[in-house]
Each structure stands twice: as C-alpha cells, then as structure tokens.
Amino acid sequence: MDLARTLTGLDGKGYGDYKRILGEHTLALPASQPTTARLLVDRVQVDPFAPPSLMRVILDRDPARIPDDVLADTAGRIATGDFLARVIARTARAQAGGERRSPRRADRDQPPPIAIGTPGQQVLERTSAVLTPAEVEVRITVDLPASGRRIRGRQAAQLLTETLPGILADALLALDTAALRAHVRLHRDQLHVQSRLADLGLVAFVGHGAILPRRSGDSDLPLQRGAVPFRSPESLRVTLELPHDPSLPDSTADRQVTGMGIPEGVTVIIGGGYHGKSTLLRAIERGVYPHIAGDGREWVLARRDATAIRAEDGRSVASVDISPFITGLPSGTDTRSFSTTNASGSTSQAATLIESIDTGATALLIDEDTSATNFMIRDARMRRLIPASREPLTPFVDRVRALRDERGVSTILVAGGSGAFFDVADHVIALDAYVPQDVTAQARAIAAEDPTPPTVGSPEATPAVPAAAVPTFTFPNPAVRIPDAGALRPADKRKFARARGRTSIQYGREDIDLSAVLQLVDPAQTQAIAHALERLADDFAADPQLSIAQALVRLEERLATGGLEALSHHRGHPGHLARPRIQEIAAALNRLRTLAIRTQAADSYGGSPA
Ligand code: ADP
Ligand code: MG
C-alpha cells in the first residue's frame, strides 16, 4: 500500500503501530525530470523518546550527476560521501528551521526530525552517505511524530512523503559539481601531504597562512577576528608539491604548499605564557585528520599515528610495562606489569605513553598544561635532596632520547616552564606573539653552559630491578597482552555497547571515560568504537590466545575490507558511524575497568631498536 495512505491510516493509533511501515517504499522526488527513490525503513523506534528510527534512501547516481572522477579512489569516495552528508544535513536543518519558525529558542535548537549526523570540521569516513558505481545510498534517522504516545499519522505522512523527498531533491538533484570537485581535490591533496611526511622525515606540517586559534575553548570553529596567520621560520620551511589534477586547467603554479615541517626527533615548543604554544600543539593533534576548506587548519597535517599523551589520574591500567619510567615502588609492585584501578598523574601518563607506542604511534604530542610535572622533569635541587635510589620515577626528559633511538618515536613537546629539555632537543621552536622562531642554536648554547645531568646512567638510577633482568634497552618490545576470558563480555548481554556523546561509552554496566582521549573528535567515532569493542569481545571469546595487538590488526583489516559497516550488528542501516583511528579504539579498550590481562610476555626485554 501507498506509504502516505498507510501513515494517514495509522493516525491516532498506539505508537508501536509505526512498525507497520518497516520495509521498502517508493518515494517520488519533486524534480523537473520524474525521479524516484527507494525508502527502506530498517528500524522503527519503539516509543517517541527512544533513539530515532533508522531509514535508508537509495537513488540512481545519474540524476544526482556525480561525476566519475570524484569516485575514482577511496579518498574521493570518502570525501564525496562527506560532501553529500553535509549538503543533506544543511538542507534538512534549513527545512526544519523554515517550518518551525518558532520564537522559542528551545524549539529552534531541537535537532531536525530528519537527520544524517552532523559532520564537524574534519572529513572522516562515515556511514551517512555511500556511493556505489550506480547508486547513492543515504542513511538517515527520523524522529517519527507523536502526540503523547499516539501516532501523528498525517504529520508522519507529510514528513516522509513530502519533506524528505523535498530535502533529497534540493540536496542531491541540484548538486554543485564544482564545489564537490573542490572538496574532493582538497581531501586528496591533504592525504597526499600526510602520506609524504614519513618519506620526508617529518612528523607534522603547518602551512603558511594557517589559522590555528579556535573561536572559544568549546568550539572547533576558527577564530574570526584578530587571528595571526601562521608563518614558518626560514630554517624549517618546506615546500610540498601537490599531485597533478587532470580536472584543473593547467595551473601548476599553485599546486604546492609551503609551511613549517617539524622533523623527526625531539622538538620542544617554548615561549611565554599565552603566546600560542598549546594552540599550535592542539592544531597538530587534530592534524591527524584532514579539515574542511575554511577551517584554517586545512594545511596542518600530522602523521596519521601521532598520538597526544596526557596525565589522567584516576584511570585504570591493566598490565602495562611502565618500568622505563617507574621502578622500585615502595610497595614492591612489579612495574613491568603494572595494574591499578586508580592511577596517579605520573603513572597514568606513563601507561598511556607505553600503550600508545605499543599501538604504533611514531610521534607523541605532549603539552605541559596537561602533564604531570614529576613525570616530565626533576630539577637539580630535588635530585640532591631525594636520591635516585629513593625516587621510583625516571622523568620523561631522561627517556625521550631512548624512545627516539630505540623505538623510533618522535616527540613534539610544549614546555614553556622549564629549560630541562634543551639538553635533549633536536629542535627548539619559540613562539613570540604567535610567531614561531627557530631558537635551537641559542637553546643548545645555554644547555652547554649549564648542563643538567641525567638521572639515567648514574649507578643508583636503576634500583629494584634484579641484576639478571637489567635491560639492555630501556624500552621493551611491545608486550604481548592477552585479555582474561570474559573480561570483555558486557555483564548485561542484552544491552549493547553504545556511545554517550563523544567522550563516554556505556559498555555493559560500565562507563568508559574517554574525556582524556584528545584526538577523538566526533560522537560518531565514539559510536564506532563502541561497536568495535563488541567485535573485539567476540574475537577474544572465539580465540583465547588472541592478543590485544593481534585483535587490533584484525580489526583494521576488517575495516579495510568491509568498511565501517563491518562494525555494526544491524543489517541495513548501520547507524551513524565515523571511522576512528586504531589508537582511539585501543585507548577505549585500555580504559575498560573490567579489562584484566591473563598473560604478558616474559621476554619483553632486550628488543631491537626500531
Ligand atoms: P600558551 O599555551 O602559550 O599559554 P595558548 O595556545 O593557550 O597559549 O593561547 C593563548 C590565547 O591566544 C588563546 O586564547 C588562543 O586562542 C590565542 N591564540 C593562539 N594562537 C593565536 C594566533 N595565531 N592568533 C591569535 N590568537 C591566538
Ligand atoms: Mg599552554
């Protein structure tokens, strides 16, 4: 039966009757050329307060006039999907705003009844709009209208058979192909620059003219007035060629970007308070994702695996080898397999660091503002009063070189409050009123005049580890961590894991707090991580010998072949998911308070340098 008639017929009935519209329908799109689309109602909400219903719309690619060249590669398909999601989201919001015209702010801020997820400043792989050679599939959520617990059938009919086709026609049948091409080109260029970083021996790139500051502490939008555009010091300046684009008229001159290349090694960012240090580091953190045109950070790109590390007291830690930083605790605890339900600032930062490099981070991003001071440095006076034998901590300043030499891990560090890192820095960048200068030579000269002796190397510095186990290498090979059977099974199987906003996941009866995971940028990523944890739980249950590292590799393979949908347990509409990095998936797993590690490889010492 015709969808409009079905819905009108349901008017006034109990809300549960909405399930009668499950299945496939045909929509007529208002356009000069008669165009139809298929509407697939995959899931219907059980009551008006439940998460909205999941529907898909499938239409032929031809009427949408999406050119072939934008779909020629994965980057192009991701950027096109992102572009369509943005256009539809904008159209749906404009529609809802136009219809409501309510003077009440609370009403105006309500999400529109038809939604596709809200892409932010980053272009991420998403499940919202996907393209096949012949079709466009749009995944939407629809809040089906109710009056109390009764169906508002007429309104629902209007929403699905008039408003929705109108949005689709406005958004997709009048697509701005030039804007789409520009969106795709930028994305491809950004990924090109990102992929070149390792070959060029760079950890990150910050383009000339970049606008790094944000509008406010809780906004990801660019500062509008008074922002000082980024400019690289001469010595760190690099120019990168962008790939040839056949869709452009021959304009080779502007097919390049110039900016500051931050080389591998240890880079310290210094400068007075409020001179823009954290802002620069923040932008680099976010530079693991490509940003949309107009964001200001389009040409701020970091290696895909660069990971921000911060102190996070209170987090749980499950069998992590933090012995490079902490040994000989007064309690006698073996820090080669350290577990706690309530880490201190320094132990949490040490654990997060080790977990990150074990997950493959080749660059660490650390800000003094969010670090435990005793994890970072220990000054000469303190060294005199508290001998190394009484101090379990070896500060990061004394390990940052070994990290580089043994594991090939670079560090970009903001340290405006201490010159202790001058001795170990390859590059020192000073920010002066937001303008960076290369002060490496001056910093070296100061360090040479007045060197800080390292704690490592002094005879008392490595207490408590038995002689036989004294490491040849400071940083062990990644430990083999195998979870305890059942450690990942949610206590309540009926409740699947789900995201609560961007920074929290409900996993069984537990909440995983991700507020310290700085490079999680989108709630749709968090939702994808929630699903990923369920898939990991299945994998660990199926194979009791599976280690965390192996499981993560397997998950990445699954994502590469099956896409994001491979994570979802729903058939059809997978929900609004965005691709997280493997680093953030691991971060969530490592913060699960029920995680217990059964085995940890004993031979984790004596690894080979990377
Ligand atoms: P620091 O870490 O050096 O103390 P922040 O990075 O926190 O400084 O920046 C201090 C203030 O300056 C913030 O309000 C930030 O938005 C602003 N800011 C940072 N960079 C710029 C810039 N390039 N132009 C204008 N304002 C900036
Ligand atoms: Mg700061």
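^ magnesium ion complex. Residues 212-213, 223, 226-228, 271, 273-279, 434 surround adenosine-5'-diphosphate (ligand 1) (CB under 6 Å). The first strand starts at residue 23 and ends at 29.
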